[in-house]
Amino acid sequence: MDISYTKMHGLGNDYLFIDGAANTVEDPAELSRQMSHRRLGAGSDGIILILPSDSGAFRMRMFNADGSEAETCGNGIRCFAKYVYERGMIDQTEFTIDTLAGPNAVTLQVDSGRVASVRSNMGEPRFEREAIPMEGPPGRVIEEALELDSETLNVTCVNVGNPHAVVFVDDATLVPLEVLGPQVENHPKFPERTNVEFVNVIDRNNIVMRIWERGSGVTMASGSGSCGAALASMITDRVDRKVSVHLVYGQLAIEWGEDGHVYQEGPATEVYDGVWSLNGSK
What pTM did the predictor assign? Predict the structure, then answer.
């Protein structure tokens, strides 16, 4: 069986998009493990299925490289919006995409029929421990000591449809992500595991972030991770309510609006179309 797909990325956070109406995917978890492999597959941080929705314009299902299903994906949402608009699946520049985390309203900036950038409403963030979820007493998790095998890190946690643990450091670009990331992700205090962001603050409007993504490992960017990093910086009064998050291949604009919702805005890029067979990509 052949499956047609499109590789896209948001600032290097790459996914393989599959139109569920044109392709039959019986086991998306196993398919994601195979297709996402950087050596034996097409190579990606996961796969995203484009599906019809009873309530919104579309429904998105996202599977990490390890086959686990994620509640939402900020970079994936932007790429999803570009995919459906530029293929004529919708002619509106404002519409809603349903995710496991709830509806996500997107606004497209279009230039000569091409999507230049996408603004996405990631909903109202949650800060209470039980909403992360994280084990421990009730209340917010703000710079709380988390003991690892090799050291102790202070984490600030937020849920923006999926869980995030943010660690403030002197230089996020020097953090050994492969060492510390999996220890935090799989820490017993996080029953559903967690995404892990390391952040250093430049000024009240700019932060640098590097991420270990739950189920995928080191990724070049993360939309929801950028929201989590920005919100953690905001609730600890390190930055204002609108910041630029600097990533490996560019930056995202994150705003915590007066309506209580958090918004992310940035580019989406299409790389190539391909076909996947049971014997691999061709």
Answer: 0.93
